[in-house]
Amino acid sequence: MAESTLSNLLRETRRFDPPADLAASANLTADAYAEAEADPEAFWAKQAERLTWETPFEQVLDWSNAPFAKWFVGGKINAAYNCLDRHVEAGNGDRVAYYFEGEPGDTRTITYAQLKDEVCQAANALIELGVKTGDRVAIYMPMIPETVVAMLACARLGAPHTVVFGGFSSTALRDRILGCEAEIVITADGGYRKGKPSALKPAVDEALTECPDVRNVIVAKRTGQDVDWTEGRDLWWDDFVGKQSTEHTPESFDAEHPLYVMYTSGTTGKPKGILHTTGGYLVGTAYSHWAVFDIKPETDVYWTAADIGWVTGHSYIVYAPLINGTTSIMYEGTPDTPHPGRWWEIIEKYKVTILYCAPTAIRMFMKFGAEIPAKNDLSTLRLIGSVGEPINPEAYIWYRENIGGGKTPVVDTWWQTETGMIMISPLPGVTSGKPGSAMQPLPGISADVVDDAGNSVPNGSGGYLVLNKPWPAMLRTVWGDDERYVDTYWSRFKGTYFAGDGAKRDEDGDIWVLGRVDDVMNVSGHRLSTTEIESALVSHPKVAEAAVVGASDVTTGQAVVAFVILRASAEGGDDDVVNELRKHVSSEIGAIARPRNILVVSELPKTRSGKIMRRLLRDVAEHREVGDVTTLADDSVMGAIQQGMNSSS
Ligand code: 6R9
Questions:
Q1: pTM of the entire structure?
Q2: Residue with the nearest Cα to atom 10 of ligand 1?
C-alpha cells in the first residue's frame, strides 16, 4: 500500500460507538476478552457446545507437535448433521435456510428440512458412485442451492470437497483436481452472470482430458445451454440425484477428519491446498459468526454477498450460518444486473438485517452514486460488515451512511483462507469503530504486530501481523505438503503464525491491516500471486520474460500490471500481442487475473544478481517517482520503461 494512503489512514480520528439497543442485547459483551484470556481452553470448550458431538472430546487442544494442531481430541462429529438434521430434530425444520435469488429473477425458498432431504439424496448419489470416507470430490458450480447441497453431501460422508471458483479456467480446475486427486466432479451446465448464461461444463470437459482418475461428473441443469456429453461418465443431477432416497443416516467422524481443501495463491507459482478439518473449523466459524454478526437466528435475515468458491462463502454462506440455524440470502449474479440497484432491491424484498461484503463492491456502488441505494428501504439493516481487503475510510463512511442509514455498526473483519474464521474485528455491541481499522482480535484470538526480529512493536508503529496462539479453525497443513506448511507460515518467526500482511498498531493499540508484504496481490478482494501470473505469461510462445506487479486501483484495490519482453520471433503489432496475452492469462488462470495493463518493454530492471526489482515497476505502474535505482545492473532501463508507460496510458 502506498505511503500516502498509509498516512491518510492513520490520520483518521472518527469513532462510532455501538448503538445503545444493539449494545444492550449483544451476544458478546466486553467481559469475554478477559474470560478467554484467563483460560483459553475453557473458553473454546464452551464455544464447542454450539455443536452436537456424538462422542465428546477429551482434550481441547493438543499442541505437542506444533505447528500441527489437534483440536477437540477424541471428539466425534458429523458436519452435515450439525448444519441440518439437529435443527430439524429440534422442531426448526420449517425455518428458511436460504432465500435463493437467481440473476434472471427466479427464486427458491429452501427450509432446513428441505435442505436436509436434498443433502441426503446427494449423499446417496455419491455413495452409488463409490465415494467413500476420505475420497475427494471437486465442485465447480455457479451460486445455486445445489452448490451447498453438494458441499454438505460430501461433508456428510466425510469426503473432503474442493470447491473451485466458477470464474477459474479449465487449467486452474485441472490443477486443483490433480492436486487433491479428486475422483468425482460436481458441476452445472452454467450459471447466470451479467445477464447471460455463462458456461461451466466445457471447462470441465477440457480439464478432464488430463484427469484420468475422475470417474463421474454430476451436472446440475441451471441455464439449459447445450452441453457435450460423455456417456457413462456424465450424469444429470435431476435424474441421478433426484431419484435417490431422502433417508441417510450420518456417520460421525473424528474432530480432525478433513472437511475441505481450498486452494489459494501463495508466494510461489503453485496455489496451495489449504486443509481445514471438521470440529475446530465448525466451532471457530460458528463462534465468530455469532459474535461478530450478533446473530439472532429467529429474527435475522443474513446475507454474505460473496461467492461460495472463496473461503468467505465456505465459512459465512455455508457452514457458520447453518450451524447457527440462520436464515441466509444466496444471490447468484453480479451486483449491477439488470440494474445497479439489484442488491438494495434484494435487501428491501427479504428485509435483510445483516449484510457482509467486500470493499471493492462498496467502491463500485460509490461510483454508481448514493441515489441508487436511496431508492430502496434499507432500514431493516442493523449491522454491516466488510471483508477481503483493507477498507479505506471514505468507503467505510459511505457504506455506513448510505447503506447503514448512518446508524449501523460496520464490522471490518480481517481473516484469511488459512485462518478459516474471522480473527480481528470490532464487536458490534462493544467496540467504538474506527473507519479503516479491524481493531482487536476476537476474544480467544491472539494477534500481534512485530518487527523484523519478531519483537512486538510499540503502539504507534508498523510491522508484520502475526498470530501467536493456535485457534480452532486454523489450517492444519498444506494438502500433501507439510514442509510447505511449516516453511510458509511458521518459519519466518519461530512458533508464531506469519500472516503475510503488514499492519500498524495505533496509539490505542488498535490494529490497522495494510495489505500483503509478500508477492501476493489483492484484486477485488481476491488473492492472486504475481508469480502465478508471470508463469502464465511466459507460458505463451511470444513471451520471453515477464514481471507482474499489483498497482493500486481506485475500484479493485489493486490491479494487475504486467511488463513483458517479447521473443524476437514474436509477430504482430504490440497492441495485438497485448490483447492476445490478456486473453491468454484469462484462459490460464481466470478472468480475474487478466492484466489491466501490459507494457511491452525491451528490458526489465534487475539487480546484479538477476532479481527483478518489482518495487521499481510498481512505482512506474502507480505513476510515482521511481525509487532508489542504485542496485540496478543497468540504471538506464527504468527511463525507457517509464517513457513506455507514459505513452501507453
Ligand atoms: C477472508 C479472505 C486474505 C487476505 C489477507 C489480507 C486481506 C482480508 C481484510 C484484509 C485488510 C481486512 N484481507 N480481510 N485486509 N482488512 N478486513 O479474504 O481470505 O482470500 O485468503 O485473503 O486478504 O491481505 O491476508 P483470503
A1: 0.89
A2: 389
Residue nearest to atom 7 of ligand 1 (CA): 389
Please tell me if the CB atom of residue 527 comes closer than 6 angstroms to any atom of ligand 1: yes
**Does residue 222's CB lie within 6 angstroms of at least one atom of ligand 1?**
no
Strands (E), 285-416: 301-304, 327-331, 354-357, 383-387, 410-413
Residue 294: what residue type? D
Q: Of ligand 1's atoms, which has the minimum distance to the CA of residue 391?
A: 16
Question: pLDDT per residue over 450-465, tens digit each?
Answer: 999 999 999 988 899 9
Say if residue 415 carries a ligand binding annotation: yes
DSSP 8-state secondary structure symbol assigned to residue 376: S
pLDDT top residue among 240 and 265: 240
Is 117 part of any known ligand binding site? no
33: number of Cβ within 10 Å: 17
Q: How many CA atoms lie within 13 A of 201 on its CB side?
A: 23
Report CA(387)–ligand 1 centroid distance (Å).
7
Atom of ligand 1 nearest to the CA of 520: 24
- Please report the sign of the dihedral spanned by the C-alpha atoms of residue 428, residue 430, residue 435, residue 436: negative
Ligand-binding site membership of 194 (annotated): yes
Of 411, 413, 414, 422, best ligand 1 pocket probe by most atoms within 8 Å of the beta carbon: 414
Backbone angles phi, psi at 246, to 5 degrees: -90, 10
The residue that leads in pLDDT, 373 or 364, is 373
Question: How many alpha carbons lie under 13 Å from residue 476 in its C-beta half-sphere?
Answer: 22
Q: What percent of the chain is predicted at pLDDT more than 70?
A: 96
Q: Are 546 and 475 contacting, i.e. CB atoms less than 8 angstroms apart?
A: no
Span 101-106, average pLDDT: 97
Q: How far is CA 384 from CA 335, 337, 368, 424, in A?
A: 17, 22, 19, 15
Integer Cα distance of 412 and 421 in angstroms = 13
The tens digit of pLDDT for each residue in 164-175 reads 999 889 999 999
Residue 207 grid coordinates: 480439464
Q: Give the Cα-Cα-Cα angle 363, 369, 371 (nearest 5 degrees).
A: 140
Phi, psi (degrees; rounded to nearest 5) at 311: -60, -35
Residue 315, C-alpha cell as written in the block: 465459512
As given in the structure block, the three cell numbers for residue 385 are: 460488515
432 class by beta-carbon count within 10 Å (0-12 exposed, 13-18 middle, 19+ buried) = middle
**DSSP state letters, 189-243:** SEEEETTEEEE-HHHHHHHHTT-TT--EEEEE-SS-------TTTEEEHHHHTTT
Give the DSSP per-residue string, 510-525: -EEEEEESSSEEEETT
**What does the pLDDT look like over 518-527, one tens digit per residue?**
878 889 888 8
Q: What per-residue confidence (pLDDT) applies to 646?
A: 76
Q: Is 500 in the pocket of ligand 1 (CB under 6 A)?
A: yes
- Is 114 labelled as part of a ligand binding site? no
